[in-house]
Amino acid sequence: MGLLISHYDARERVKLLIRYIADTINSVATGDVWLDTNALGAGLVDRVITSDEYIGKRILEGAKVLRGVRRKMHLCNRLE
What we know:
The chain is mainly α and 80 residues long. The protein has one domain (2-78). The protein is 50% helix and 0% strand. The radius of gyration is 20 Å and the shape is elongated.
């Protein structure tokens, strides 16, 4: 039951935030997944860019970005 209420609430929120899609909400709020250019064509996103493009733009705007580094575990630590 909670999932249905959440889905309904999400649809109503989208209608408020994206006024021009309010008339066509039923055609996009189907529970399906919308990927890149399909979402763009349906007006669900403003643009499609890679994560590298987004992060690069944010760095140029002065955002601080953390870089995660994966450490290799020594064999003796893996066996514990």
